[in-house]
Amino acid sequence: xxxxxxxxxxxxxxxxxxxxxxxxxxxxxxxxxxxxxxxxxxxxxxxxxxxxxxxxxxxxxxxxxxxxxxxxxxxxxxxxxxxxxxxxxxxxxxxxxxxxxxxxxxxxxxxxxxxxxxxxxxxxxxxxxxxxxxxxxxxxxxxxxxxxxxxxxxxxxxxxxxxxxxxxxxxxxxxxxxxxxxxxxxxxxxxxxxxxxxxxxxxxxxxxxxxxxxxxxxxxxxxxxxxxxxxxxxxxxxxxxxxxxxxxxxxxxx
Amino acid sequence: xxxxxxxxxxxxxxxxxxxxxxxxxxxxxxxxxxxxxxxxxxxxxxxxxxxxxxxxxxxxxxxxxxx
Lengths: 254, 67
Prior knowledge:
The structure holds two protein chains of two kinds. Chain A is mainly α. Chain A contains nine helices and no strands. Chain B has one domain (8-63).
């Protein structure tokens, strides 16, 4: 029985806003350092050291922002929907806070993917925008993120806002496999995936290495941004709790 | 590990694609920076509000008892 309780302790701790706030407070400086180092070295490597593409010249270097942003925009949607589902099923407030925080980050990353894609499209396709399956489904992803953001403000009760946006986030997951598969199902302007888990990637190793650094950098950055947004949400929601008041009065007395 | 470009001007030009590459980089970095600054500010604002409420409570109960 005792070991059974211990095994689940981490799960209950994870549901405690206070525990989340304290542990992320300790981790954030290190994570921020790691993210900055990875992103700075990845950008330097990708923009200046990697060889130019045989067909696209130097415009291909936009890949080092476009692909990591698009990957994290999709991963971020899974995180948001999963957090929403956990919140709905187990009624964990902490989980809803993470879901709410994932929405602005996801919207920003989707915007980066769409914007860099448009800028990249001009020199390589001759147009900023096409109503291609991949691009259109990414635009829908942006609207889903914005919808979750808007629903958060549409309710006077925080609990209702959490529930409604969690349901929207869950319904929207239908869009994710469509985005993944869009380049295979519809052959249009957007090139097929460069990185594949199951077979060899169609990119030269010298170009791939900085891309992997950038993807890792975006992952760590995502965690940093999610922690920052969630910590702000925790203070707003727990403003009247004893531990937040103690935290504030300790800070001002110091 | 050599840099592909001979001069700073070449880096800016990117073989004719400089405008596209640097606009994409600038906008992306600005958006990422905003993802750190915005929550940082709202965190500070939330803590300040708690502080204000605590001070008002401490002062208010002693003087007028409002709020």
